[in-house]
Amino acid sequence: MKHLFLILMLFFGQLIFGQKNFLDQPYLETSGKADTLVIPDKITININLNEADTKNKISVEEQEKRMESALKKLGINTEKDLSLNGLSSGFKTYFLKGQNIIKQKNYSLVVRNAVTAGKVLMALEEQGISNVNISKLEYTKEEELLLALKSKAVLKSRLTAERMVKALNQKLGKAIFISDENNAYPQVTPMMMRSAKAMESYDASSESPIDIEFNKIKYETFVNVKFQLD
Asked: Which InterPro entries match (predicted)?
């Protein structure tokens, strides 16, 4: 027990001594910021198949077949990019018809660009599947992007520090402390599409692009750097 106490005392003594040394040495603290906008390359589409949407005329199973056929015509790998969120049933009472079970299924579909997303929406609309929405926008190279932004922010911080010490006729030493903060602002926004007339004449198998846009995702990083003064 005494040995453990001595080890703890030694550890905390070194920690306090290290902090004191850090605070005692002259330093200059500066901050830097870097940001950029990127086009999302992973778009998640939520597809809801509901018998109630067709007044119980088209079963969920039939809607599934139509959906899968439409997606495959667009060259989408349904085994890889289409996933089932869950199966649920709701009860709805009809006048003079008793009680019926209304089935519904929710799917998530991943596409890689806005053009494909637009084609999916149009193709599903042609099949009578209209309960569709964009649920998530992502950028798959986020980690690499944030590292690059941090590097830019640190360089800006150093440049600011160099200019400040030059005015004081001093020399800037090594960085002795760095902290950072990252922010990402992916926004699911209303899509800009063609007019209703153009939508009616759209061919789902066509390779022509659709006028559909998403807001870009904004990434930004902040750094605080303490530089030793020589």
From this structure: 26kDa_periplasmic_antigen, SIMPL/DUF541
Which residues have C-beta within 8 Å of that of residue 4, sequence separation ≥ 6? none
- CA distance linking residue 43 with residue 134, whole number of Å: 7
d(CA 90, CA 84): 18
Q: For residue 188, which of 218, 219, 214, 220 has the smallest C-alpha distance?
A: 214
Gap between the Cα atoms of 185 and 139, Å rounded:
11
Whole-angstrom Cα distance, residue 34 to residue 201?
A: 45
pLDDT (tens digit per residue) in 139-162 = 999 999 999 999 999 999 999 999
Quick: pLDDT tens for 90-118: 433 333 345 556 678 899 999 999 899 99
- The sign of the CA dihedral 156, 162, 168, 170 is positive
DSSP class of 160: H
- What is the pTM assigned to this prediction? 0.69
Decide: 42 and 112 in contact? Cβ < 8 Å.
yes
**Tokens, residue 77:** 């790998």
Q: Would the pLDDT of 15 be above 70?
A: no
All structural domains of the chain, each given as residue ranges with its CATH number in brackets, are 25-40+140-230 (3.30.110.170), 42-138 (3.30.70.120)
| Single-letter code of the amino acid located at 114 | A
